[in-house]
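User: Predict the structure for this protein chain, please.
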Amino acid sequence: MEKETSIGSMKVTAALIPSEGRLLAAQRPPWKKFGLLWEFPGGKVEPGEGLEESLVREIKEELCLDIRVRGLFKEISQQGHDLEINLHAYWCEIRGGTLQLLEHVAITWANPSELKQMDFTKADRLLIDLLEKLPEFPKFRTEG
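Assistant: Here is the predicted structure, written as structure tokens:
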């Protein structure tokens, strides 16, 4: 008799923040799951929270930045051993705040070919493959 397993799912968001052909990437701390891997900043969606609301909150908590979500880039489902990750990646722009590393150990701005050389989480590597095919990233007009 086969044992049935119940696989849970988790919604997470990621901010794609472009600037001059590069994207903001953050390195996870060594003591967290996927320690020292790079990622596009974001995080788990809390119960009762909308995707965009979650992303704005996570970026504020992790990097002390105020962002505006400009549009969905891609949804990716990544099957793990005991958990399905549903990643929602959004184009975002920085609206204010002063960058501080509260939950990461490093940040960098990198273009897609540079991002491919970095050690990213699996779902974010799938995003990088898609980003590399774009002729350019969106440019957002900063409002006064």
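The helical segments are 51-63, 112-116, 122-131.
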